[in-house]
Amino acid sequence: MGAFLLRRLALAVFVVFVVTLLVAWAIRLSGDPAMMLADGAGSITEQDLRNIRAALGLDRPFTAQYLGFIGGMLRGDMGHSFMGGTPVARMVAQALPLTLLLAFLSLGVSLLASIPLGVQAAVHRGGWADQTIRIISLIGLSFPNFWLAIMMVLVFSIALGWLPPSGAGSLSALVMPVLTMATILTATNVRLVRTAMLETLSAQYITVARSKGLAETVVLYRHALRNCAIPLITYIGLQFGGLIGGVVVVERVFNWPGMGSLAFDAVAARDYPVLQAVVTVLAAMIVAVNLLVDIVYGLVDPRVRTE
Amino acid sequence: MHMRTRLLAAAVAIAPAFVPPAQAAGTLTVAQSQDPNNWDPIATFLIAWGSVASNMFDGLVLRDEALNLKPGLATSWEVLDQGMRLRFKLRQGVTFHNGEPFNAEAVKFTMARLLGPEGAKGPQQSNYTSIGSVDVIDPYTVDIVLKRPDPVMLTKLAGYGAMMVPPKYITEKGSAEFGIHPVGTGPFKVTDYQNKVSLTLAPNPAHWDGAPKLDKVIYRFIVEPNTQVAELQSGGVDIASNVPVALASTIANAPTLSLISITGPTVTVLRFNTTHGPTMDARVRKAMIMAVDRDTIVKQILQGHAKPVTSFQSTLSFGFDPAQKPVPFDPVAAKKLLAEVKLPANTTVSLDFPSNDTTFREVAQAVAGYLTAVGLKAKITPHEMNVFTNDIIPNGKTGEMFRMGWGGWTFDYDNTAYLMYHSGEHWNPYDKDPALDAMLEGQRKIVDRGEREKALQAIAHFVADNALELPLYNMNTIYGVNKRVKGLVAPPDNRWRLTGVTVD
């Protein structure tokens, strides 16, 4: 088990390292941050641009810039934003909790909805409830999340005036971003729960439980659902990357000041330190969740360890 | 992105304009497109900075809504030594928001900071390099001595980098702290700043120009223009500062909202590649200019929220010549001229532009249509914005024509003409003309305003005569405003002073 853990950990560190290298390299392929900073300036000269580049440390070779970034990250120093010189660590510390709040709350709401719906669909397989749930889930899968976000703004903010269309200042501002994300997630998760349930319900111990005369809810939620939990948890762990990706887009529409908004602005402004930090932090989180899933698998299923 | 913008635009347009009860009287909430991240006057050149920070800082001179210079922290000034020395009499009894006195030493500190190593880190310094020294004559008299003539210097002192900053505060706290907790002498002071979320201002009742009437101003940073409009419609903000053309009529028709559409600082033209391809020939360029009906583009696509231009400047610009006539729309003459040139069959012209500008995409399609109508094959080539401005244009990788939007807060034609047409300039990959260079350099040495205006007008005529660009339009700045806001005067340079504004 120790060797297995070490191997997985080394692989995870390697993946994060490759991600940092790719991001640092890719963002430098096009555009010039000095020019972005000087946007709108009256009489900017090449000398002025050189001064700005020197002040930002962009006159150094790529390897020096990259090693500076990696060294800083290892020391917990994410550098300063090109746009305004704000410490990147402070920006991430402000944005990351907001993104995680959105992601986990959406996931929670989605599970609350998809488990009972998925169970019902499985129990009444082929019936009208199953058909309806499957069709609605198919429609949900086909929505782009930004479209749903826009429709919600239209209905709940503009037509009804119930909820603020953007911002992160109040509890009510959380409702629409969470609902948008949760709807998209639920569409997938319902199908997942249904499939897992169907498989479990055909197992012999369910027949035993039923023949014991247990109430149907007890059979479903205590016996069957517990046994579906393992594939569900695994899948949700793997879904985490996609979840973060979805949050990025939804944040933009609702002007939610999280990691997605940071990344969006940083790409547009070629703000290297901010983008590098945001991508590294998110990549590290996704890799960590996957590592955790791997480890749990290894614990549960000894065959994986010798793989 | 594009699709999303369209959808929200359509969605908002068909929605009934329902606005919930207004918020607290006396509090103005403004949706601002961009957070400059740093409020230090020498750190940025963003219009987003100017439109907020003009409430926090004062310059020695200021500009009124008609863009005329007026006294600011200087009550009067004299131009001495043939324009090489500017003497300012300073306003007495002014203090910064932290209680520090404003005097000649503060002016000297501000300018030394701008021109020193701290200023070199930002884009502001370049505008003020004609300043040689700042001499303190007495505590309330100060001389700014130029090392080379700069007729625009007085105007520049009304803007951005020359905003007066507190010496003691910056020396003690450092520039980084000043950037997030700025202190000026302006009519409003900063009480709270949350990066990328909001900035809150409180009135400075002791301001020399009178106490502001508002109790509070909140700027909310909202990037998406459509989200700004949704906030305006639902009562979350009182002013949407970036309204897309597609949503202008929705706001105009809403009973509780009003639309302000005023001449903006940015002029859009199509510049030609004068060194390669078919547009090397001036006749081809002239034919292309005649082929495009700009009035229709402005009326149909931009719904009238723009003005056709004859040169690369707005009607408010110093150097604008009201007598200069536009090249008339004449496809027949264009065809005739093209026939004279005998271009090879299937000559294709490409129009390059930044892909994030959805309104301009429609304009580009229309232009391509007009060019096709006179027998040219036209295609449009979008580029990612940053790549377009930092690589495609400066390195001369454009097609036959490319979009350029320009215009500074100084509203002086020099600010555009020199950078666009002088050979070797960053934004000028193609044009090299010694005669034009001489005109551009010459006007910078003229001190007399009238003489200089004539020289600038001559440059505009030269550019038109040589068909160096296809002038398009001067885009309006469009604001959506809740009708509970009173006394709002929108300045053409986007630099708002909210002193006289009230909110019911």
Describe what this molecule looks like in 3D:
Chain A is mainly α. Chain A has two domains: 73 residues, no CATH class; 181 residues, MetI-like fold (Orthogonal Bundle). Helix content of chain A is 79%, strand content 0%. In chain A, helix 5 crosses helix 8 and helix 6 crosses helix 8. Chain B is an alpha+beta fold and 504 residues long. Chain B folds into three domains: 125 residues, D-Maltodextrin-Binding Protein, domain 2 (3-Layer(aba) Sandwich); 139 residues, Dipeptide-binding Protein, Domain 1 (Dipeptide-binding Protein, domain 1, Alpha-Beta Complex); 214 residues, Dipeptide-binding Protein, domain 3. Chain B has 17 helices and 19 strands. In chain B, strands 1, 8, 9, 10, 11, 12, 13, 14, 15, 16 and 17 form an eleven-stranded mixed β-sheet that branches. A four-stranded antiparallel β-sheet of chain B has the order 4-5-7-6, with helices on one face. Chain B has a two-stranded antiparallel sheet with strand order 2-3. In chain B, helix 1 runs parallel beside helix 8 and helix 1 runs parallel beside helix 9. Chain B is globular and about 75 Å long. The two termini of chain B are 37 Å apart. At the A-B interface, helix 2, helix 3, helix 5, helix 7 and helix 11 of A face helix 1, helix 7, helix 8, helix 14 and helix 15 of B.
Q: Using the coordinates above, name the CATH class of the largest domain in chain B.
A: Alpha Beta
Report the largest inter-chain contact.
A-B, 56 and 61 residues
Rg of chain B, Cα atoms, Å: 24 Å
Report the CATH architecture of the largest domain in chain A: Orthogonal Bundle
CATH class of the largest domain in chain A: Mainly Alpha
- What is the count of β-strands of chain A? 0
Query: What is the domain total for the residues of chain B?
Result: 3
CATH superfamily of the largest domain in chain A: MetI-like
Strand count, sense and barrel status of the largest sheet of chain B are:
11 strands, mixed
Average pLDDT confidence of chain A is 85
CATH domain topology of the largest domain in chain A: MetI-like fold
CATH A-level architecture of the largest domain in chain B: Roll
* Fraction of residues in H or I helices of chain A: over 70%
